[in-house]
Specification:
heterodimer; A: 378 residues; mainly beta; four-stranded antiparallel β-sheet; 28 strands; B: 196 residues; eight-stranded antiparallel β-barrel; 63% strand; elongated
């Protein structure tokens, strides 16, 4: 009888230990939640939505195998420029007419201009007055070209050029030696909008110190440093009127005025969420109520920040239903508003979706709708 | 109709038990190798009362998987045996990532039918180490199984077993408590058993 008691106690202890030690501390979400939320992987791995031809409705996009275009408002696609082994197109610009600009491996000698109608490619030689040695060339989705290199003294220097290789902004005059480029940001959904239509934010880092520059839409697009906590890494931004909102990698939003960048930006919300570089952050609504729809990296949800522009009060809503039902657990890489008012959302592994948002901050099936993966056009 | 069939089966088992001479004695042993498949059946999330049933995307998220195990049991009476089992289960998720579980548990089996044909009804309770993506934890494991084993000779037998596994997930991190859940799997396995 004593042995039976001892066995029972030992077995109970074993069970208690298992339950107590059953921690899942490093996980981004519960194990079975992650499993239940897993999504079918589609063949297409999207990188960027380049834009839509307004006449033919052909949609151009960049994937990990090259640039493709749809046949009008259908999901039938054809290759436009294919990647080849070790020659990858990292980013591209489409002028919504007949020209695509891209770089291969971001190499200065591999800046290509492709004319769609004639199927002709040409290599554009990049030169810059201040940057004597160009090490990296990045085509920005809005058609600008970001150069990284060194000047005659060997100091790291950056510059922004337009497609005619004319310098845009005064970035090359900024002292950024020792700083690495960490992000060239455009507002989500405005990737292909020109610099005169939508501003940019460019971020650099040295060690753990960041410098963020705002480049306005007004010529001559003078880059101004943003006075914000320089330990924070910006991953997305939106602008409403002259209000500028910066989303950081650790889930904070800072607010300031794009007309007064030297005035310190103030934190208006801090959520315990992680955001990846170039996180999805789509702004909808109008002042005084803005809806900033974001996709945190560590949670299977869309987080909608409802911002009162007058009081700066912010409420957050986790959305997984309605318009978010297929994208809340994906890695969103780009978005493109359509003339219909719908939003195309491209993901890294789970295909592309067309969503309609009616009530952004309500988590129910009536807040909008979403097509299934890869059924973005009728 | 189903009820009548089950009742008939139960009557057969009871009749067989009543008139059969027990084949096993206290001290007899069994050693089994098991190989088969597991069907992710349901996942229930306690917080939002979300009950996901079935395979793949928008359900349990897991696909049909595989299971292999070894078990040992010793008879503590002519009709019941105690022992244990350790196994390895894997299921790919909808996104083709691997879910794995290593269950190890104490097992009690009741043999209402025994001899050339054994019909063990087993109950298991123990632990399981489960892992998926960036989550892993040691948790509880419980199961109930029923099998049918045919012994063409005295020692070696070939069996088919099914049942239900239950694997709970209890998170103590506040951020993860909303994901506490209970998962169920149905195994379907073939086994080779050596008895003496």
């Amino acid at each position: 009888m004593q042995t039976k008691h001892r066995n029972f106690i030992l077995f109970s202890l074993l069970i208690a230990i298992l339950v107590i030690t059953g921690c899942n501390a490093d996980a981004s979400a519960g194990l079975f939640r992650q499993l239940a939320n897993s999504r079918e992987v589609v063949d297409v791995r999207y990188n960027q939505l380049l834009g839509q031809n307004p006449i033919t409705d052909d949609l151009y996009f960049l994937t990990d195998t090259g640039i493709y275009a749809t046949a009008g408002l259908t999901t039938t696609t054809a290759s436009v420029v294919a990647n080849s082994k070790n020659k990858l197109i990292r980013s591209a610009y489409y002028d919504k007419s007949d020209t695509i600009l891209y770089t291969i491996n971001e190499e200065p000698t591999n800046v290509q201009k492709y004319i769609i109608s004639t199927d002709k490619k040409s290599t554009t030689a990049i030169t810059h007055g201040t940057i004597s040695t160009i090490t990296r060339v990045k085509v920005i989705p809005n058609g600008l070209i970001m150069l990284t290199g060194t000047n005659s003294s060997g100091a790291t220097t950056y510059a922004l050029l337009d497609s005619t290789l004319t310098e845009v902004s005064n970035l090359s005059s900024k002292i950024l030696d020792g700083y690495s480029l960490v992000g060239v940001f455009q507002q989500t959904g405005f990737g292909s909008a020109s610099i005169t239509a939508s501003p940019m934010v460019v971020s650099f880092v040295s060690g753990s110190t960041y410098k963020h520059y705002y480049i306005p839409t007004t010529p001559s697009h003078v880059a101004s440093e943003i006075n914000v906590d320089n330990t924070k890494r910006i991953v997305n931004f939106v602008e409403s009127g002259t209000n500028l909102y910066l989303l950081t990698s650790d889930g904070m939003i800072f607010k300031g005025a794009s007309t007064s960048l030297a005035t310190a930006f103030t934190e208006i919300v801090d959520v315990t969420e992680d955001y990846a570089d170039h996180a999805f952050g789509y702004l909808t609504g109008t002042a005084p109520t803005l809806y900033y729809i974001t996709k945190p990296d560590n949670k299977d949800q869309l987080t909608v920040f409802t911002i009162n522009t007058t009081t700066d009060a912010v409420t957050t809503t986790a959305v997984t239903k309605g318009y978010a039902r297929f994208i809340y657990n994906t890695e969103i890489v780009d978005a493109l508003p359509l003339s219909s008012g719908d939003l195309l959302v491209a993901t890294a592994r789970n295909g592309m979706y067309r969503i309609t948002i009616t009530t952004p901050n309500s988590n129910d099936d009536s807040n909008g709708s979403s097509t299934e993966a890869e059924k973005y056009f009728p | 109709m189903k009820r009548f069939l089950l009742l008939g089966l139960l009557m057969c088992i009871i009749a067989t038990m009543a008139f059969a001479v027990p084949y096993y004695d206290k001290g007899n042993q069994m050693f089994s190798f098991t190989l088969g498949t597991t069907f992710p059946t349901f996942t229930y999330f306690f917080e939002d009362k979300d009950f996901r049933v079935g395979f793949g995307e928008n359900n349990t998220g897991a696909k049909v998987g595989g299971y292999g195990a070894i078990s040992y049991q010793v008879f503590n009476s002519p009709t019941s045996a105690i022992g244990g089992e350790i196994g390895y289960d894997f299921n790919f998720s909808a996104s083709n990532m691997l879910f794995t579980a290593v269950p190890f548990y104490a097992k009690y089996s009741f043999f209402p039918v025994q001899g050339q044909w054994d019909l063990p009804i087993s109950f298991g309770l123990g632990g399981a180490y489960i892992k998926y993506n960036d989550a892993s934890l040691m948790t509880l494991f419980g199961n109930v199984q029923v099998g049918l084993t045919w012994y063409p000779g005295d020692n070696w037998g070939f069996g088919l077993t099914t049942g239900l596994w239950l694997i709970p997930e209890f998170n103590y991190d506040d951020a993860l408590k909303q994901d506490n859940a209970l998962a169920g799997f149905i195994p379907l396995t073939l086994s080779i058993t050596y008895r003496q």
